[in-house]
Design goal:
The protein is α/β, with parallel strands linked by helices and about 350 residues long. The chain is built from twelve helices and 14 strands. It folds into two domains: about 200 residues, Rossmann fold, CATH 3.40.50; about 130 residues, no CATH class.
Length: about 350
C-alpha cells in the first residue's frame, strides 16, 4: 500500500539529521496497535510498502521473484526491491518498508544475504555493499542506468566503497532515506528463534497495553449485562501472568476490534473465551486457580468449573445458559456490571 510522498527540507537532504531509527521493531502482545503506531508516528504521509511475514514467506516473495520466460530469466520486484528502487530515485523523500509480524517467518532466511545491508554507517548507508543474484543485479542496472538524475548521486556515494565501481548498480547499498519498520507479536513465536546477530541490527520499542483506551469498548452479554473490556482484560491479564509466568499471552486493548465498540456475547465466546481456553489455560481445568468457574445458582454457594463446550450447549435450565454462566464468571472475577448508557452517551471511560 502506498501513500503520498512528503519532501524533506534541504537541510535534511542527506538524511543524517533525521532523529528516527532506520530500522525498528515495535513489539508487544497481540492487540496493542503496533502497526498503527508505525504509520501514525513514523511513516506519516511518506511512501511505504506493506508486507506480512508468515511461515510461507521466502526471500523471493519479499525481495522479488526470478521468472523463466521465452527470453530467458526476468525479475518481478516485490516489496523490498520496489522500496529500494523508490528510495534511490527519490533521495530527498523518506520511504518505508513496513513489515507486519516479522517473527511470523524465518526472518534471517527471508532477508538472506541482504541482512548484511542492514548494518549502516554514520551517514545512514549500508556499511558494505551486498552482492545479489545476477538477474536482480541486471534488473537494478536497467532501472538505474537509464535514470540520469541519480547518476551523479551514485557516483559520489559509490566512490567511498573500495569494492564498488562508480556505476555498478548491481550491488545493494541501502540509502539513508530507506527505513524498515516492523511489528512483532510476542505471543506468536518466541523471540529467541530470531538470529541474535539479526536482532542486533534493529532498535526495539515496546508497545504497552492501554487499559484506559480499552474501556472505550464494552462487552454486552445481554441488554442489561454489560462490562468494560478494559476492566476485564486488566483482571484476566493478572491471572494469566500469575499462572503462566509469562507476558506473551496477555491480551492487548485491541485484541478484538468489535463493530460500534460493542463485543457481543457471540464474539466474546468465539474470540476471547476460546483463546483463553485453547491457547492460555488449556491444561488448567482441574487447577483450583482456573478462571473458568461460575456459581451454580443464586441459592447454593457452590462454585463449579465450566468448559468451553458448556457455553454452546442448549438447555432449558437458565442456570446453564451461556449468558448466566458468563455473568457469573464475570462476578467471580470481580468485574462490575455497568449501565450500557454510560458507554453510549459519554465519550469518557471510567
Amino acid at each position: 500500500m502506498d501513500t503520498n510522498i512528503i519532501e524533506l527540507t534541504e537541510e535534511q537532504s542527506n538524511l543524517s539529521s533525521i532523529d528516527i531509527s532506520q530500522q525498528k521493531i515495535i513489539f508487544g502482545v497481540h492487540g496493542t496497535d503496533k502497526r498503527s503506531k508505525i504509520i501514525q508516528e513514523y511513516v506519516g504521509k511518506a511512501k511505504y510498502f506493506d508486507v506480512t511475514f508468515h511461515s510461507g514467506t521466502t526471500y523471493e516473495s519479499f525481495i522479488g521473484e526470478i521468472r523463466q520466460d521465452s527470453d530467458g530469466q526476468s525479475f518481478l520486484p516485490k516489496s523490498f526491491a520496489k522500496a529500494y528502487k523508490t528510495a534511490w530515485e527519490q533521495p530527498k523523500s523518506p520511504c518505508f518498508i513496513v513489515i507486519q509480524n516479522i517473527n511470523g517467518g524465518d526472518s534471517s532466511k527471508i532477508f538472506g544475504d541482504l541482512m548484511q545491508s542492514l548494518a549502516r554507517n554514520e551517514k545512514g548507508y549500508s556499511s558494505a555493499p551486498v552482492e545479489v543474484n545476477l538477474v536482480i543485479g541486471k534488473w537494478l542496472t536497467e532501472e538505474f542506468s537509464n535514470n540520469c538524475s541519480i547518476k551523479d548521486l551514485f557516483k559520489s556515494i559509490y566512490e567511498s566503497y573500495e569494492t564498488v565501481e562508480a556505476f555498478d548498480y548491481s550491488k545493494i547499498i541501502l540509502p539513508p532515506n530507506l527505513y524498515i519498520y516492523a511489528t512483532m507479536n510476542t505471543g506468536n513465536n518466541d523471540i529467541s528463534t530470531m538470529d541474535s546477530s539479526f536482532k542486533r541490527l534493529w532498535e526495539w520499542e515496546y508497545s504497552p497495553i492501554d487499559y484506559y483506551k480499552a474501556n472505550y469498548i464494552m462487552i454486552e452479554l445481554s441488554d442489561d449485562l454489560c462490562y468494560y473490556w478494559g476492566d476485564f482484560i486488566e483482571k484476566v491479564n493478572k491471572v494469566i501472568l500469575e499462572i503462566t509466568g509469562s507476558e506473551k499471552k496477555l491480551m492487548g486493548h485491541h485484541f478484538v476490534n468489535p463493530r460500534n465498540k460493542i463485543i457481543s456475547i457471540k464474539e466474546f465466546k468465539s474470540k476471547v473465551i476460546s483463546y483463553l481456553w485453547l491457547e492460555v489455560f488449556a491444561d488448567e481445568y482441574n487447577n483450583p486457580r482456573t478462571i473458568f468457574r461460575y456459581k451454580q445458582d443464586n441459592v447454593s454457594a457452590d462454585i463449579i468449573p465450566f468448559t468451553l463446550s458448556d457455553l454452546y450447549e442448549t438447555s432449558a435450565d437458565k442456570w446453564l445458559s451461556d449468558v448466566y454462566i458468563m455473568s457469573s464468571f464475570m462476578t467471580i472475577l470481580g468485574i462490575k456490571k455497568i449501565y450500557k448508557c454510560r458507554l453510549i452517551y459519554t465519550s469518557t471511560p471510567p
